[in-house]
């Protein structure tokens, strides 16, 4: 086959993937009111965004939720990965299976099942319910990230540490932790992003007392076009891109 | 002495190990297993305005799923999800192939560019499509300025808009598993097939397709199911006539407050997932490969 055809095809698909994003970014600097026609460069939508106190509150709520959900899921997820890697125990297959099911099952099913649980147990819909839900769907991703790192790890090192008299706790802290640190950071960043972007689960388990950003955006874009969303979307894009670059950098550096 | 020491260490090891296992199992049982059992139970109960669900036990909710009104919505949703999957496969298959033939250095960059969207807000990206497809949006304005069309085409709030949105969001999930199988595909096999006298088409059908089948199945699984659940895509792009199963479930739980019926619809979706997972496992076993988790 000719050489340029595959190349051209790749470029075409990338163009299709990136044109909408590019348009969003360009139009976030548009001075025009309509949002369709270019009316000159302006930062007015960014200004409007920062002056929108409800929006800013939702942003802080979202960031706080993402930080706490990422931290908690990294903690539980990495411990799970360690247990799966090192211990033999009954129900290991079941545990892996359950994590797999969480990852594969449609988000909306997770969402309604958690809503049913929270209302039944009497957990008020708000920060706590969102946190529990977000940790749950981030968990398998952290486990996979850490397990991948552990699988390339020399098992003789912890054995040696143990032979030298280290307890499991000390061995974990001094030998394993430095090794899996890059995976922990990558897992944390992934969890943070998943939490910040989630719409489906949050729609069900959030309450009026704790409004988060994706839901605020959702209610804005359902009807018509809101130039403010262009500005917000651009900021989120830049933010996610930084997070992704950071996690790639951490993983790449650790491979050397 | 050795034996004694080993026992001593096991004693020290146990609290850590036990703690971790209790934490993980506790979390998964409380927040995955129990909630799912609740949904299953709810799907067999009766709607109640006060407590959401109440006795008696009934099959009515599943019968309502067969109601022509809802059946039509489900079939339409399945249809849109299937078209989405097919389009993703048709775009993604040659894409993954071409990607696996690029030099290693550039490949890393290209894969990075592919996962950027995965890390960016899907709501914002759906909204970006709206900017393009609106009646006085960029596509219409551009085509009219070029004189290709005289009056704006209606693109938003159509079935096509929903499918475009779903493809846009889900394409990377089709490409990545396909890329990983193409990356493992050894060129020698293609040469061997050629040397044995097979033509291009025959090699493709008898060598390439079977070898990339696990990737195809994984991709289909990762696209088809979300494509039935992503309720915000029709909400933003599709209008009220192009609903997904996800929209029905959401409406039943949050607006109509008919939990048993919503639960039954969710179970339908879960069963579809189970079926796909089962097919996937089966094919993996036949092809002698293990899964990730």
Automatic annotation (TrEMBL), chain A:
The entry's function note states: Required for the activity of the bacterial periplasmic transport system of putrescine and spermidine.
Q: What keywords are annotated for this sequence in UniProt? A: Cell inner membrane, Cell membrane, Membrane, Transmembrane, Transmembrane helix, Transport
State the compartments where it is located: Cell inner membrane; Cell membrane
Q: CDD domains per the record?
A: TM_PBP2 (cd06261)
Q: What is this protein called?
A: Spermidine/putrescine transport system permease protein PotC
Q: Which family does the entry's similarity section mention? A: Belongs to the binding-protein-dependent transport system permease family. CysTW subfamily.
Q: Which residues form the ABC transmembrane type-1 domain?
A: 59-247
Task: Locate the transmembrane regions by residue number.
Answer: 12-29, 63-85, 97-121, 127-148, 169-190, 229-251
What gene is it encoded by? potC
Topology term for the membrane:
Multi-pass membrane protein
